[in-house]
Amino acid sequence: MINKYKNYVKSKAKSYFLVGAEKEDLYQEGMIGLYKAIRDFKPETLASFRAFAEICITRQIITAIKTATRQKHIPLNSYISLNKPVYDEESDRTLIDVLSTIYVSDPEELIISKEQRKRLKRE
After folding, report:
1. DSSP per position, 10-42
2. How far apart are CA 48 and CA 71, in angstroms?
3. CATH 1.10.1740: which residues of the chain?
């Protein structure tokens, strides 16, 4: 079945485009859709296998495109490493060195610190 429909999957994948991906990626998604069609097809239904496979292949390709273009991955894909040199590539100083490592995580210490600053300002 896979050999019989692989050219159909190729032609279907050619009609779609995914930024940052190769045509082979969409072809593979189409082949996954074909596999799902083979796995899930029930001959007792009135639909032909070709019609069912076309729907499964198209849905798999479209789902892959939607998943790849979702905005939720932008923060992960556009991060800045804390270990990157700050000034130039040969610098020993990194962003993590520049950022203050002194922070208060205990709420009690935070309140006490604020009260001490207020008292110092009054005095």
Report:
1. HHHHHT---TT--HHHHHHHHHHHHHHHHHH--
2. 37
3. 2-77
pLDDT per position as a tens digit, 32-66: 999 999 999 998 887 899 999 999 999 999 999 88
Is residue 56 a contact partner of residue 29, using CB atoms and an 8 Å limit? no
Its pTM stands at 0.57
Say which CATH topology domain 2-77 has: Rna Polymerase Sigma Factor; Chain: A (1.10.1740)
Contact 87, 95 (CB under 8 A): no
Work out the number of other CB atoms within 10 angstroms of the CB of residue 115: 10
Q: Which of 17, 11, 6 is nearest to 62 (CA)?
A: 17
94 phi, psi to nearest 5 deg? -110, 170
